[in-house]
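job 3f2a | input accepted
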Amino acid sequence: MSRKDTGEPKRIGILTSGGDCSGLNAAIRAVVNCAVNTYGWEVLGIHQATVGLMARPPQFTNLEIDRVDSLLTAGGTMLGTTNKGDPFAFPIADGSVCDRSEEIIAGYHELGLDALIGIGGDGSLAILRRLAQQGGINLVGIPKTIDNDIGITEHAIGFDTAVNIATEALDRLHFTAASHSRVMILEVMGRDAGHIAIAAGIAGGANVILIPEIPYTVEHICHKIKERQEKGKNYCLIIVSEAVRTQDGENVTITNRLGQSRYGGIGEYLADQIIQCIGVETRVTVLGHIQRGGTASPLDRLVATAFGVAAVNLIAESKYDRMVTWQNRQVLSVPITEAIAQYSAVDPNGTLVKTARGMGIYLGD
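job 3f2a | predicted structure (365 res):
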């Protein structure tokens, strides 16, 4: 017999999945406060995303208000997370893979959960939904990604903080670039979309913004640099998304000691090309994971808090298989399938592109 049948308070779980970002703890705090204060429910924080449900016994923490109240500004996630190990093809020691989805589903039911709130990007939410459909899990999703590329939401947790950090980096690079008459290249994250680069580039006064959605030529970048020199501007700021390809359309990647490949190196590629083209001194700064860490911006705290409260209210209304979303200054909800089906790249004809070009920023051809 369920708690609903006996009149007992609900017990809900919450987990964070995929890459970390600022604002996750603010969302956890909001879920706990709303669930406990408004509904008198119990909240279990699942450790290390679905890995915590896969463990035996399942790994979790009872989340009470006193435990989460100081988390509003804390970066990362108190629950831990993982972006490795698809549970439907989970890697094991001998190099093969196996399906461990039923273990996760069993963990959910073993904990006696009435619903699960999953905070993740499109990949994580797709996996969580598949688990939910297979195992009768009442799932509500909260979008988070510094790339801000999940469809049907104007904001995802973590994006604003990442933009703030990238903008501050540009602010600082202005002075050293001018002091040494250099071209400074700032390489920022952006797995497939250039939202961080274009937003920070405009806000931080970049002269060149390169994003994967718009092709470019080194010749035109060099023309922009020389044009500034002719006007007495002895330096140039370039911001580039890590997913930008070479002029010939090739991906630029780095392979680590484990043989794993990831985006990285486009900044150095551009520096070499610029030096060969016009011989100007060029330096590269790669922000990397700095964009994921640190204190969440006020907007990320606000969005995360609103999302957390809305997710709990969806559970109270028995509205599952939905993701909360920010649209037109409101928090609404949409079917998870609809949200993850619509990828949100930078619109080459959109407002930010028109703004950048209107400011004389070279954005590509």
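job 3f2a | The mean pLDDT is 93.
job 3f2a | closed
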